[in-house]
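@here heads up, posting the sequence + SMILES for the guanosine-5'-triphosphate run so it's all in one place. Ping me if the SMILES looks off, I pulled it from an old spreadsheet.
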Amino acid sequence: MFKKLRNKLKNWTKKVAEKPSVETKEVKPPMKFDVGKQKYEPDVEKIKKSSFIKKVTSKISKIKISEKEFEVYSEELEMLLLENNVALEVAEKIIQELKQKIVGKELLKKEVEGEITDCFKEIIEEILVDPFDVIEKVKEKTSDQSKEPYVILFCGINGTGKTTTIAKIASFLKKKKISCVFAAADTFRAASIEQIKKHGEKLDIKVISQEYGTDPAAVGFDAIKYAKKNFIDCVLIDTAGRMHTSKNLLHEIEKISKVCKPDLKIFVGESITGNDIIEQVKSFDWAIGIDGIVLTKADIDEKGGTALSVGYVTKKPILYLGTGQEYNKIIVFNKKKFIEDLGL
Ligand SMILES: Nc1nc2c(ncn2[C@@H]2O[C@H](COP(=O)(O)OP(=O)(O)OP(=O)(O)O)[C@@H](O)[C@H]2O)c(=O)[nH]1
Ligand SMILES: [Mg+2]
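bot reply: prediction finished. Complex structure tokens:
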């Protein structure tokens, strides 16, 4: 994962670190002179020695990056971030912060790479919101005696992996002894109900469905009713893929959300989407106010910038990464691990 961005960041950092060192002029020992009656005779050897050491050490070990030099480097950095799916506003923030941290500072040459890497780490840690534990949230709600299930609504554009993610999360919850029911609220796409029913069969999870073309909000509502009656802990609502540019379809998801009052609204996006995902996530957030993000297809994402972009733009946590098609191919998003995967 994220191989491309990792290598490019490394090369860029190396390049900055290889910048020529700060040069110091050789200090010539002052001539002998008389001050009044006092004679001044410098310790030539001592001066020679100290200036030599200064010259040598500064030549091999110190660099200072000026604002102008940084501008040249930063153009290159901006390009490489943009090429790797980091949104422009995020790339600009990274560059701004990096500038403040390294420009004009005299740095030991051997420490420059480390210094820049540490800066990247700090900035990325600041950009990404720490994910909360979904299992804990479900347990918190279902542990009291209210018998109210924990409801999760999934949304996103077409084909991003919503239905697959629902099955993966259900399998994950089941392993933690949390019971689930699926709401087949994608009543629009051909074969969508059969698709989720297949997952239900494989995972031994009840699927609540109606006819194609029925109101998806009603399907979600039915599933919640079923969960309450049967003491099921968690309702997972699948919805149809919808373009973020379609006002009518955004209205529909708003209605599903109003009727089902989910505890958690998850936006499912592809990590390979590129900058488009910014507009997608903003639209869904505007329509229903999302609480967290799942990025799928991280297994085929060599870049890694999407996570930074959606995290920064929404200030919402990335909860899981989808890393393949099987049920166990889902990992809890971990900031530290993500930073490590970027080679920082
Ligand atoms: N490589 C990879 N493939 C994935 C991942 N998640 C989902 N897929 C694949 O993506 C394709 C679409 O997945 P679905 O779950 O049907 O997507 P969806 O968002 O429900 O699609 P619509 O309901 O049509 O909007 C399927 O072929 C999945 O197997 C993932 O993390 N990695
Ligand atoms: Mg689907």
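MO: The first strand starts at residue 33 and ends at 35.
MO: One more: The chain has three domains: 1-19+65-127, 20-63, 134-341.
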